[in-house]
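Reviewers of the previous submission asked for a worked example of the structure-prediction workflow described in the proposal, so we include one complete record here. The input consisted solely of the amino acid sequence. No template or homolog information was supplied to the procedure at any stage.
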Amino acid sequence: MTDKIKINLEYIINCSPKVLYNRLSTASGLTEWFADDVRVRGKKYTFVWEGSEQTAEMTLHKDNKLVRFVWLDEDDTYFEFKIVRDELTGDVSLLITDFTDEDEKEETEDLWSSQIADLKHVLGS
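From that input alone, the workflow returned the following structure tokens.
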């Protein structure tokens, strides 16, 4: 098994942190853009994509600011959504932290960009 590398991505999202946070932290919100289906039991979120499932636990959350999910079947890997509002411009950025194999870095970044395009579409931004 190769070590995973950490990647950080940033996207400008034209909506309020509150609306964005809802799309990042709830089953209904995540189903709109991130996965085909999302089931929640307590802090455990099961994400379904084209018939395959992965379960993560929401280990961190700060209203309208941060959500972190730790994958239960992978050691020490998580993905995190951080919402940042620029004090001067008022722009809202979504910072994504994820882990991937070094040889899949570009594919992972492309996948996130595609999913964020879906998110922006859902948000009408």
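The beta strands are 4-12, 37-41, 44-49, 52-62, 66-71, 78-85, 92-101. We consider this example representative of the routine output the project will generate in years two and three.
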